[in-house]
Specification:
The chain has 137 residues and is mostly helical. The chain has one domain. It contains four helices and five strands, in the order αβββββααα. It has a three-stranded antiparallel sheet with strand order 1-4-3. A two-stranded antiparallel sheet has the order 2-5. A hairpin with a 4-residue loop joins strand 3 and strand 4. It is globular, with a radius of gyration of 16 Å.
Length: 137
Amino acid sequence: MTPLLYLLLFLSPPIPYRQLSWSDFRGTPPIAIEASACTCTNIVIGMDTAYAIFDPTRSWTKTTDADVLRHEQFHFNITYYWANFIAREMKLKPPYSAHSIDQVLRLWRKMQRQYDRETDHGRNEVEQKRWEQLIKL
C-alpha cells in the first residue's frame, strides 16, 4: 500500500498481526458505551494472499486491565486465524472466487460475535480459556 493510500484510509498505519499493548489502542472511546475496550481488526486480501490488520485509530480502551487486553488480543487472533485460512485456500484452490472469500468473511464475523457472546466479552473466564484452547496459533 502506498503512503498516500495509508493517509487516505487510516490516520495511522494499520498494525500487522502481533501481540497488542494498550498503547496500540489510540481511538477515542465513545461516551455512551458501557464497554471497556473495542478492537477493530480486518482482513486485507491481495491477489494471492490475505493478512490480518489491527486499526489503532478505530480501537479504543477505557481500562488498562490485563484480562481485558487478553480478550481484545484474541479478537485479533481470530482475525489472524481466518486471514491465514483464506491465504491457504487461495494457494490450494486457485482461482479463489470473490464469492468464496465473502462466505469466509461472513464466518469470521460470525465467530467474532460468537466469541463475545460466549465469553460475555471476556468476563466469563472459563469460556475465555476454552476459546483460547479452541484456536491455537
